Amino acid sequence: VIGLKETGKDSARSDPETPDQAQHSESFEQIQAARKLLPAYKVKSELLRIIRDNQVVIVIGETGSGKTTQLAQFLKEDGYCNDGQSIGCTQPRRVAAMSVATRVALEMGVKLGHEVGYSIRFEDKTSHRTRIKFMTDGILLRETLMSSMLDKYSCIIMDEAHERSLNTDILFGIFKNLLSARRDLKLIITSATMNAAKFSQFFGAAPLFTIPGRTFPVQTVFSRHPVSDYVESAIVQASKIHLSFPISSGDILIFMTGQEDIEATCEGLREKLTGIYAKKKSRGSEAEELDDIDILPIYSALPADVQGRIFNSTPNKRKVVVATNIAETSLTVDGIKYVIDCGYSKLKVYNPQIGLDSLQMVPISMASANQRSGRAGRTGPGIAYRLYTEDSFFDDMYVQTIPEIQRTNLSNTLLLLKYLGFSDLISFPFVDPPPEQITISSLFELWTVGALDNFGELTKLGRQMAAFPLQPPLSKMLLNASMSGCSEEILTIVSMLSVPQIFYRPKERQEESDQARARFFVPESDHLTLLNVYAQWKANNYSASWCRRHFLQFKSLQRAKDIREQLTVLMERKNVPLVSSGSDWDVIRKCICCGYAHQAGRLSGLSKYAHLRNGLEMRVHPASALFGAGDLPSYVVYHEMLLTTNEYINMVTAVDPLWLIDYGLLFYNISRRKEEEEDQGLYADESPRSLKDSIDLAIERALMKKEI
Ligand code: ADP
Ligand code: MG
């Protein structure tokens, strides 16, 4: 039975469609004709004129009007690349950068990576010939480290600025100075209507240019009762639409929060419709299996070739795209008539009071809800089904999404800014400044990892850390490893942490795949488990079939290998020695502890940990190697915290409490809670309130240590 299953569903899903099927059927002429119909095309000459006359222009337009795909092409045609300079276009999301670059290369009839290319973290598809470069805003921010004048660019398009991603906001501040130093550089900011006036004001009343466009009315249907399981509701709603409206009426777009619920929705919808069709068939009707519907997921961890499939259409089939908020404004799929909106998104949230980063499911904003609904009205009137009540729309949703800079850990960003020479952050020109609490807490974190000195200046370690495109805990871990003699191993771990899902867990073979995964477990550490997987894969000549046999995602591992190679080059360039600790895994765990000393927990009760700095109760994620492996270790550090109904910690490693004292000296202290109690252990110090307080505290600590 298992053998049958293996050849069935599984192989069909892991292999993308054959290239022929995946190819666009549009001819070059058809593409050019379609371009001419886009609203942006119709205002091309006015747009180019206003750009010629102004250094900064803000372009507003409905989603799908051609801002992203056309603007860069217009600029190139207008001669902005004639002196060998390039046009850079930033995107807040990796998927968008890749997808849009692919599209523009196709429209221009060039090979991706030649005249048109893209660059995202750890993946550079550009060459010396590249003149139109799509990239994430994070990449452009890094480029300003290398070349502060951005000399190679004649124009920068900052796309999707209304998203207010952290990096876009920081780039705005940097441009404010840069633009007066480089009068010849053009900055074009594209935005949905929200925030546009604010951007104009920020750049000294820069002109706004609106691309006129037409949208159709969208009927919004709220859920009458609160929805307890939005995946289930979305499946029910989508199958209802599919079965009651003719395929020719239009396609369906479902908004979910991330990979997990997207896959669950796709799978569930497939199952449900298969069931219904089978029933019909048994009643004698000729309904075939799912041959009238294409269910297509889109999220960032998906390989590029699979991502591209959302744009293909097959005649006589209804397309159901199940997406994250990438489809809100970044990507436009034509032909959508029905939108189903779960009403949530996954956000990275930082709590400065307790110094805690976490991923949280939060209600989207009203503005997002309306953007999502609007996607149904691009080519004709549409319907948006909201899987939440009207009350919750008004009561639970903010009017606008809070800009990332005001809700996220800024330590990485502040490290870059320090490196760029903005020593005084108070005077940095922010569009909206981050809350002081967050700035202080992030600076504090940088100081605790040794990136800043007691005066808030970058240390040598801090400068080295800034050179690596990694979160501070990871770069710290890597740099520390070269001194401790295990940088080969930590490098592998860091690379493995930079790719999504290593383990493959198909729904119909869960038990089997769980067993396969357990065979790689190193019971005291998920990090070492990753190292173990990589080492075994390497020992098997990086084989793809070996991965398949062991339920590992070959593509993810390949990517980890690629990232590892890139980081190796960077380490060589920065003179960071590559050394291996051989079979001594304690050194590695100690190094892991060094990176994450501020994210530690102490066993409390049978299955829970108490966060050492704030007492928060946390559970080990069921996918962890530590889960169900007998007695849990007394102290652990973790990589990531996930807040859902429970607090879960992901990627966990057992540590020796003495290491925590070594590396977390600033936080922890050995104490007896009560003299009479024998309960001895590590406790967090009272949270320092400001950088100065914490410095005083540290000096005190250091003195105390000497006395001892
Ligand atoms: P905007 O940036 O104004 O939202 P875009 O430039 O992204 O608009 O999209 C313009 C048009 O190009 C839309 O009709 C969209 O569907 C189409 N398009 C964009 N990317 C692709 C793609 N990869 N494949 C097919 N069509 C695409
Ligand atoms: Mg766009």
From TrEMBL:
Q: Does the keyword Nucleotide-binding apply?
A: yes
**Which region ranges are annotated with the description Disordered?**
7-28
Q: Which family does it belong to?
A: Belongs to the DEAD box helicase family. DEAH subfamily. PRP16 sub-subfamily.
Answer whether the UniProt record assigns the keyword Nucleus to this protein.
Answer: yes
UniProt feature coiled coil, ranges: none
Q: What species does this protein belong to?
A: Lachancea meyersii CBS 8951
Please list the residue ranges that the record marks as compositionally biased, kind Basic and acidic residues: 7-16
Give the record's keywords alphabetically. ATP-binding, Helicase, Hydrolase, mRNA processing, mRNA splicing, Nucleotide-binding, Nucleus
Which superkingdom is the protein from?
A: Eukaryota
Q: Give all residue intervals belonging to the Helicase C-terminal domain.
A: 237-421
GO terms under biological process: mRNA splicing, via spliceosome; protein-RNA complex organization; ribonucleoprotein complex biogenesis
Name where it mostly resides: nucleus
For this record, an example GO cellular component is:
spliceosomal complex
Instruction: Kindly list the GO molecular function terms attached to this UniProt entry.
Output: 3'-5' RNA helicase activity; ATP binding; hydrolase activity; RNA binding
> Its Enzyme Commission number?
3.6.4.13
Catalytic activity entry: ATP + H2O = ADP + phosphate + H(+)
- Stretches assigned to the Helicase ATP-binding domain: 48-212
Q: What is this protein called?
A: Pre-mRNA-splicing factor ATP-dependent RNA helicase PRP16
- Which cell locations does it reside in? Nucleus
